[in-house]
Specification:
- By secondary structure, the protein is mainly alpha-helical.
- It has three domains: 154 residues, HUPs (Rossmann fold); 150 residues, HUPs (Rossmann fold, 3-Layer(aba) Sandwich); 99 residues, Arc Repressor Mutant, subunit A (Orthogonal Bundle).
- 47% of the residues lie in helices and 11% in strands.
- α1 links the parallel β1 and β2.
- The longest helix is centred in the C-terminal third of the chain and has 24 residues.
- The radius of gyration is 32 Å and the shape is elongated.
- The N and C termini lie far apart (76 Å).
- It binds one RNA strand through α4, β7, α6, β12 and α11.
RNA sequence: GGCCCCGUCGUCUAGCGGUCAGGAUCCAUGGUUUUCAUCCAUGUCACAGGAGUUCAAUUCUCCUCGGGGUCACCA
């Protein structure tokens, strides 16, 4: 069974890049009928917060990505890690190092001055004397000092590292006894049964360290897939300074989960020329072997296009539901279908859609100045009055085509072009010269409101 | 700087020795629309550079250049 995981550290909101790797992991598990697990990496007490962890969970909730097991919090697993640390110590695969931070800094500075690679020099590796007083030791693993370590990566291929280039006896437990990242990742992935690790390629260079841990503990190695970074327009790793990187900000801006997910799945992954993927299609088609090797630049032009695509293709019931987040309650509106059918073609975001709804359902409070000069001139008011009279005299127009017929009759009786009535009427009804079809607008607001808006417009502008 | 990764239209990408280098988005133009938007059509735009290998390289190899990542008692 394929078991994947997403393991964020709760130092802030869920990031767009994190979401993409989470999505990849989720899809790969689903495709194989496996499990997708969530683990909160909160071992660094100073930098983590519960709110951040909750924010991440909220984002997953919004997007409908569910973990298939209990959510693991590393902060609650000290006992487990302590057990493995002891085992490593007992097996002679790790040791206590009494070097002080000052000594370490000094060592690094000397190495830098000599243009050497900064690394721990292994001075306590085989130490058997009396430990210095007043220093709480860290625990370091005995890493191989020579040989080749190969990361068999499903995206990048075999990546070879020379131990002497990159390794030293790195710390696996801090002076206060708490375990460090590379140790706990290996332990937790093993214990959770994770056998396919999909993560950002910024982790590629410390994968050898985790391999050392796997080997020292005798764990089976998972498969690795290191997904390329998402860059900002400047070509650098996407960070919180780059505008909208908080997943939940997309909810507020009016993007749908379907569009965001579709957008993200195509960033660094593709399936031929296909652009539109439903969640079901993603689940059946996704394969990490098709992930690109190169980084991609974050650019939301395509997200806008996808979002409008999904809005156009959503049912009116779905839209009604989504719109409630933006303060629009249409559930009991009798012309809801007509309104949404007309408006969903026109909106890039749910937020825009909400605005468009309001522009129809609420009478204009002002009239665009330029538009007034352009449309309320000549015999515009005569035409409007004639039309108003038609509406008034007609019995119960309901559908757009009823109103269209009314407009037609005025046009033919007065022997004018359609624009002669369209422009002023549009301005009277909506306060501006653009918007959805007038017949639709009138059908939605009804006969009384139509007449009211016409009267009001004439009054306000004469 | 050491180590590692990457390099096809502005952007997302297809390509897995022989293609007019394809699609999408963006942009522009035209059509549809009483308007705007949608929609439809058309168009502009790319293999980083140089050596090899080969009858043939975007595709394989090497070098150069360029970009990125990582080098913690952070994750």
């Amino acid at each position: 069974m394929v078991v994947t995981r997403f393991a964020p550290s709760p130092t802030g909101y869920l990031h767009i890049g994190g979401l993409r790797t989470a999505l990849f992991s989720y899809l790969w598990a689903k495709k194989n009928g496996g499990k997708f697990l969530l683990r909160i990496e909160d071992t660094d007490k100073a930098r983590n917060s519960e709110e951040a962890a909750q924010a991440i969970l909220d984002a997953f909730e919004w997007l409908g990505l569910k973990s298939d097991g209990e959510i693991i919090y590393q902060s609650k697993r000290d006992d487990i890690y302590a057990k493995y640390i002891k085992q490593l110590l007992d097996d002679g695969k790790a040791y206590k190092c009494y070097m002080s931070k000052e000594e370490l800094t000094e060592l690094r500075e000397t190495q830098m001055a000599n243009k050497q690679r900064t690394m721990y020099d292994g001075r306590y590796r085989d130490f058997e004397g009396t430990p210095p007083q007043g220093v709480e030791p860290v625990i370091r693993i005995k890493a191989p000092m020579s040989g080749e370590i190969i990361v068999r990566d499903g995206v990048k291929g075999d990546v070879k590292f020379q131990a002497e280039d990159i390794l030293d006896d790195f710390v696996i437990a801090r002076a206060d006894g708490s375990p460090t990242y590379n140790l706990v990742v290996a332990i937790d992935d093993y214990l959770m049964g994770v056998n396919e690790v999909i993560r950002g390629d910024d982790h590629l260079s410390n994968t050898p360290k985790q391999i050392i841990i796997y080997e020292a503990l005798g764990f089976d190695m998972p498969s690795f897939y290191h997904v390329p970074m998402i860059h900002n327009s400047g070509g650098k790793k996407l960070s919180k300074r780059d505008g909208a990187t908080d997943v939940m900000a997309y909810k507020e801006m009016g993007y749908t989960p379907a569009a965001l997910l579709n957008f993200l799945v195509r960033l660094g992954w593709s399936h031929g020329d296909q652009e539109i993927f439903s969640m079901d299609e993603m689940k059946t088609l996704f394969n990490p072997q098709d992930i690109n090797k190169s980084a991609s630049i974050y650019n939301t032009e395509k997200l806008d296009w996808l979002n409008s695509h999904y809005i156009k293709n959503s049912s009116n019931d779905e839209l009604t539901n989504l719109l409630t987040d933006f303060g629009i309650l249409l559930t009991s509106h009798d012309k809801k279908e007509i309104l949404l059918d007309a408006l969903k073609e026109r909106a890039k975001t749910l937020k825009e859609l909400a605005t468009l709804v309001l522009e129809v359902t609420s009478a204009p409070t002002s009239y665009d100045e330029k538009a007034v000069k352009k449309a309320f001139k000549g015999d515009a008011f005569e035409v409007l009055n004639a039309f108003g009279a038609k509406v008034s005299a007609s019995d119960a127009p309901k559908l757009p085509l009823d109103y269209h017929a009314l407009m037609e009759s005025v046009v033919s009786e007065m022997e004018i072009g359609f624009g002669k009535i369209g422009q002023p009427l549009r301005l009277a009804l909506l306060g501006k010269l653009s918007g959805p079809g007038l017949d639709v607008v009138m059908s939605v607001i009804g006969k009384e409101e139509t007449m009211l808006r016409i009267e009001k417009a004439i009054l306000a502008n004469s």
